[in-house]
Amino acid sequence: MKTLPPFNPYKFMYHSSDFGLIGLAVMGQNLALNIADHGYKISVYNRTFSKTQDFLNRNTYSTNLSGFENIQEFVESLKKPRRIIIMVQAGEATDAVIDMLVPLVDADDILIDGGNAKWTDTIRRESALQSQNLHFVGSGVSGGEEGARYGPSLMVGGSEFAWNQIKEPWLAISAKVDDDTGAPIEGGSPGNPVQGGVPCAAYIGKDGAGHYVKMVHNGIEYGDMQMICEAYHLMRDFLNMSAGEIGKSFSSWNEGELDSFLMQISADALQQNDPNNDGFLVDYVMDAAGQKGTGKWTSVNALDMGTPAPTVAEAVFARCMSAIKEERINASSQLTGPSRSFINELDKSKFLEAIRGALYCSKICSYAQGFQLMKAAAIEYHWDLNYGEIAQIWRGGCIIRAAFLQKITEAYEKQPQLSNLLLDEYFKDCIDRYQSNWREVISVATLNGIPVPTFSSALSYYDSYRTENLPQNLLQIQRDYFGAHTYERTDQNRGVYFHMDWLDPNRPEIKI
User: Fold this and answer.
1) What is the dihedral of CA 354, 440, 453, 247, to 10 degrees?
2) CA angle 74, 80, 85 (to 5 degrees)
3) What pairs with residue 136 in β-bridges?
């Protein structure tokens, strides 16, 4: 019997790979392995060839991986139309890779940006490449390292031609949820991907739609994380609970309406013992948070479009406040606040339940803001977004995966043109049931000097949205008084503007 030569992952193979991937940082490596595990041959390239060699040498179990040192050979190794995934740093690095590839690819080839790109960059790149008969896909990839490896949530923006070219593999490599319960299907191991279930991948819309929806996902993620931190803060500093006790409470909450990935990992992390000292790890971690910018993008875009998203903004500002640690240390020795109240064990149990309700109500309002923002963007950028489907693909793989996303899908299935999630019967009933607890928690936090910016902003959003007459009638008078900015009248049709001549003693009103 003839002996076959050993597999050589560096051997040049003309037009044999289904995909190419550039950028072998952790996310790129894991996505490449995920694609290979699903039976697709994939060529990989990294600017530093030693990283490519190391990656292939650590994953010799897969015969679907090929590595290249020369970019032209990498491109020529791909089947046409070529499908090349770019997994490098957003911004200039992505543009540099695109510029490198354009002279080497052919008409109808597809470049796929799987990074956290700004949607406006994706719109620009798609337009520029379209003029050269190339297709550009902005694919949001959510789920972190584990998601990339065993099943992310994938949000695709680009031409329908490009989507049809990647649809089958994208559905295959995405996270899966149970068809009946909507719960994520866990598992997966090298060479053995998750089988069955509903894929968490979808075509979102043209040009930057996929990356925009991924950005809003990340903004909501900022809010979710900060809300959990505020619940933890109240439990730690008002109820005097240990990190381990809080973690156990979070585990219990994760069995009900608050079931989510972030609640699950928070419960686990809070119960982690410190490897170097007695006590829990969280008690030794510096309270200075970092960020990579997508929460800021969400907040700035909400401001640009005049769409209220205060809870995401407060979550971003909370990280900014945490970062000025030295200033806060100095201020803590000089600025005073109220004395903390005492709470007995019976009231403690009731207040714990109140915190749970406040967290859920705040979460509902945060998601309502995110979906309201996407609706505004759909009008601005002429996208046809399917909001129920977006919630559906967030049920698995992504960081904000949570049981209540199924309720959002159901809300939009009942009313596709629903203007705000707060108007859905399920979410209305939830807030009716818990809002007294929500208000109590914020009141107690304020009286005891414990900051709860996302809880408070979410409640203000709810109260503002349900208020027929806000005080901005006075604001409009102020603007007209100092700047002649005009105002509308309640006894006239919308869109008819008036100005008062404030400098004239007789003050005539002028219809503009």
Assistant:
1) -20
2) 55
3) 111
pTM, two decimal places? 0.92
Q: Is-contact 424 415, C-beta < 8 A?
A: yes
CA 195 from chain center: how many Å? 25
The 10s digit of each residue's pLDDT in 445-495 is: 999 999 999 999 999 999 999 999 999 999 999 999 999 999 999 999 999
Q: Show Cβ contacts of residue 309 under 8 Å, excluding neighbours closer than 6 positions.
A: 219, 298, 299, 302, 369, 370, 372, 373
- Distance in angstroms between the alpha carbons of the first and the last residue of the chain: 94
Q: What pLDDT score does 206 carry? A: 96
Tokens of 369: 């803001």
Distance, CA of 22 to CA of 49 (rounded, Å): 11
Token pair for 321:
């406040």
Q: Quickly tell me which residue has 């969400």 as its tokens.
A: 298
Burial 248-272 (b: 16+ CB within 10 A, else e): ebbbebbeebbebbbbbebbeebbe
Amino acid letter, residue 390: I
Residue 487 CA from chain centroid, whole number: 38
Q: Which residues of the chain have pLDDT under 50?
A: 1-7
Active site residues: 214, 221
The DSSP H or E segment spanning 201 is: strand 201-205
Kindly list the distances between the CA atom of residue 13 and the CA atoms of 23, 67, 213, 427, 435, in Å, as whole numbers in the listed order: 20, 10, 37, 55, 63
Peptide bond preceding 184 in cis form (omega within 30 of 0):
no
Structure tokens at 323: 């970062």
Predicted local distance difference test score (pLDDT) of residue 2: 38
Separation of CA 374 from chain center? 12
The full DSSP string for 151-214 is --EEEEES-HHHHHHHHHHHHHHS-EE-TTT--B----BTTB---SSEE-EEEEESTTHHHHHH
pLDDT score of 180? 76
Task: Give me the pLDDT at residue 7, please.
Answer: 45
Instruction: Report how far residue 172's alpha carbon sits from residue 258's, in angstroms, rounded to the nearest whole number.
Output: 29
Whether the Cβ atoms of residue 271 and residue 243 lie closer than 8 Å to each other: yes
**Cβ neighbours of 53 (radius 10 Å):** 15
266, amino acid identity: S
